[in-house]
Amino acid sequence: MDRYWNALTEVQDPEMPVNLVDLGVIYAIDERDGVVAVDLTFTAMGCPASEFILDDVRERLLREPGVREVRINVVWDPPWTAARLSEAGRDALEAWGLAV
């Protein structure tokens, strides 16, 4: 699974200067027979960038060898909070001027 987590560090949130893994919106990744399932959330319901994020996650994972399908499950429980940020994510947002 590490390679999928690493791949998703290349996917940036379109509205903030931080990748989805460091932002803490990726909850789980599973792979079976070339099908990668991703549980993710958004920082807020009605996120205007949600379709871009879903497309970017799907596109990036499909570039991984052996991946033939990506299934994304948007989850709201547990809800995202700033506590899910990695240290790198927190640093990036603070450098951008956001209090976290």
Quickly list its features.
single chain, 100 residues, alpha+beta, GMP Synthetase, Chain A, domain 3, 3-stranded mixed β-sheet, 4 helices, 3 strands, 19% strand, globular
What can you see in these coordinates?
The structure is a single chain. With 100 residues, the protein is of the alpha+beta class. It has one domain (2-91): 2-Layer Sandwich (GMP Synthetase, Chain A, domain 3), CATH 3.30.300. Helices cover 33% and strands 19% of the residues. It is built from 4 helices and 3 strands, in the order ααββαβα. It has helices spanning 2-8, 20-23, 50-62, 87-95; strands at 26-32, 35-40, 69-74. It has a 3-stranded mixed sheet. The longest helix has 13 residues, at 50-62. 25% of the residues are buried.
Q: How do the strands and helices of this protein lay out in sequence?
A:
Blueprint: H1 2-8, H2 20-23, E1 26-32, E2 35-40, H3 50-62, E3 69-74, H4 87-95
Parallel strand pairs: 2-3
Antiparallel strand pairs: 1-2
Proper CATH architecture: 2-Layer Sandwich
CATH topology: GMP Synthetase, Chain A, domain 3
Largest sheet: 3 strands, mixed
CATH level-4 homologous superfamily:
Fe-S cluster assembly (FSCA)
**How many helices?**
4
Mean pLDDT score: 94
State the gist of this model:
This protein is of the alpha+beta class and 100 residues long. The chain is 33% helix and 19% strand. A three-stranded mixed sheet has the order 1-2-3.
